[in-house]
């Protein structure tokens, strides 16, 4: 019997997406690179959008965050880059199970696959103009991803609406369940 797609995705992430140990690489700063990760997920080098996905994935694999700055690092080089919001955009969501046993996997624009769980919780942060609370998740080592509009709507479809438990809250709240945890998705 073939494994469900959900489990195949997890195995691929673990077996073939091994990431370099950038957390242990601490070379001296070489300078600033004219590379911007735009808030819409596009990577732009010297004013030109990088269109080759394998190159973007390579850069994403050596991305590191220190404080509020982002760097591309190797064992011997460290280049500061600019990130307009966060480096990753969550472009796909998959759910396995229902209710308390549900698990949600999120996939980034660079192929990282992350389970929504206690180690990778959902966070609501302001985004846009005017700012609206949008869900984010830590992808790896302080690097976050923001949900795309399509994924956000998918999560809303999976969410459970509840009346608030404590006054003075008067808004209905939306909760998501994944990996035995509950996450506030928003309120209306």
From TrEMBL:
Pfam families, per the entry: DUF1285_C, DUF1285_N
UniProt cross-references to InterPro entries, sorted A to Z: DUF1285 (IPR010707), DUF1285_beta_roll_sf (IPR023361), DUF1285_C (IPR048342), DUF1285_N (IPR048341)
Domain DUF1285: 20-86, 87-184
Top-level taxon in the UniProt lineage: Bacteria
Gene3D superfamilies assigned to the protein according to its UniProt record, in alphabetical order: duf1285 like domain, duf1285 protein
Protein name: DUF1285 domain-containing protein
């Amino acid at each position: 019997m073939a494994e469900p797609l959900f489990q195949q995705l997890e195995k691929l992430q673990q077996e073939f997406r091994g990431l370099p140990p950038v957390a242990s690489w601490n070379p001296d700063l070489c300078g600033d690179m004219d590379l911007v990760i735009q808030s819409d997920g596009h990577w732009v080098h010297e004013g030109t959008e990088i269109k080759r996905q394998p190159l973007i994935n390579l850069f994403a694999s050596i991305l590191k965050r220190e404080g509020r700055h982002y760097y591309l690092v190797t064992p011997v080089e460290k280049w500061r880059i600019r990130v307009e919001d966060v480096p990753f955009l969550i472009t796909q969501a998959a759910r396995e199970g229902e209710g308390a046993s549900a698990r949600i996997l999120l996939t980034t624009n660079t192929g990282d696959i992350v389970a929504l769980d206690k180690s990778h919780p959902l966070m609501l942060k302001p985004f846009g103009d005017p700012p609206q609370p949008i869900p984010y998740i830590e992808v790896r080592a302080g690097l976050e991803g923001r949900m795309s509009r399509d994924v956000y709507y998918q999560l809303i479809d999976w969410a459970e609406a509840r009346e608030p438990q404590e006054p003075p809250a008067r808004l209905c709240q939306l909760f998501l369940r994944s990996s035995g945890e509950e996450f506030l998705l928003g309120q209306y």
